[in-house]
Amino acid sequence: MPNFFIKNSQIKDDRIEVTGDLLKHLLGSLRIKIGERIVFVDEDKNRYLVAVTHAGKDSITGNIIDKTVLIRKHGVSINLVQAIPKGPKFDYIIQKSTELGVSAITPVISERCVVRPEKEQAQAKLLRWRRIALEAAQQSNRRDVPEIKTPVTFTEFLTSYGKVDLKILLWEGEKEHGIKDILKNTKDVKSVAVVIGPEGGFSENEVKIAVEKGFTSVSLGESILRTETAPIVILSIILYELGLLI
């Protein structure tokens, strides 16, 4: 059963009330009726099982029959920094990365990016990307939605990112560092930034600058993965090494 995200203000005593876009989705797409059960997650990541007592055009209300408070298993945050690819590939990347539990996704525009959205176009894309992340988080039973950040140039990202414990840049030209070597000592890692290039990869100059900024250039082996495949592979490896895939 998917989660649906609500504001804390929608919880009143032992009842939850739904209005707005979520109401339209529950009534129009899912055809929720009185007596059905829905799972909601509030802003504090608490999960509620609710029995619907009213389903009308203005609101859906229900009684809380079970509440599960979040017990944090880990405090690791992963920021996927992805150069924007062509077509719908970025939609796919957001969906799958959300399912894998990333904390944030930062779209960047690198030298070889074909897609370079203007301000208005970027805003429209950002709204769609955030909606995709929300839907993927609901479908995958997450208790939170990853932050989809405003697109920036790769240079802007490198000059503005904060302190990160583990900084990885995937580059097909790397000959010395494999991902297995980099992930040997991850015991105290609490924050990770993973940088992935566009279809044409990063330029040598971009890699050089990133390394100067503290990133480690790594390879995933001899095969060159598509830009939409690489995030799934590297995120799965990192989650496994950090003990977050059970």
In terms of topology, how is this protein built?
Elements: E1 3-5, E2 11-12, E3 15-18, H1 20-29, E4 37-41, E5 47-55, E6 60-68, E7 77-83, H2 89-99, E8 104-109, H3 119-139, E9 147-148, E10 152-153, H4 154-160, E11 166-170, H5 179-182, E12 191-196, H6 204-212, E13 216-218, H7 230-241
Parallel strand pairs: 1-4, 7-8, 7-12, 8-9, 8-10, 11-12, 11-13
Antiparallel strand pairs: 2-3, 3-6, 4-5, 5-6
Helix pairs in contact: 2-3
Written overview of the protein:
The chain has helices at residues 20-29, 89-99, 119-139, 154-160, 179-182, 204-212, 230-241, and strands at 3-5, 11-12, 15-18, 37-41, 47-55, 60-68, 77-83, 104-109, 147-148, 152-153, 166-170, 191-196, 216-218. The protein has 246 residues and is an alpha/beta fold. It folds into two domains: 3-68, Ribosomal Protein L25, Chain P; 77-241, 3-Layer(aba) Sandwich (Alpha/beta knot). The longest helix has 21 residues, at 119-139. It is elongated, with a radius of gyration of 20 Å. The protein starts with a strand and ends in a 5-residue tail after the last helix.
User: Kindly, what is the distance between the CA atoms of the first and last residues, rounded to a whole number of angstroms?
Assistant: 20 Å
In DSSP terms (H or I, runs of 4 or more residues), the helix count works out at 7
Mean pLDDT: 89
Q: Looking at CATH, which topology of the largest domain would you report?
A: Alpha/beta knot
H and E order: EEEHEEEEHEHEEHEHEHEH
What fraction of the residues are assigned to beta strands by DSSP?
A: 25-35%
What is the subunit organization of this protein? single chain
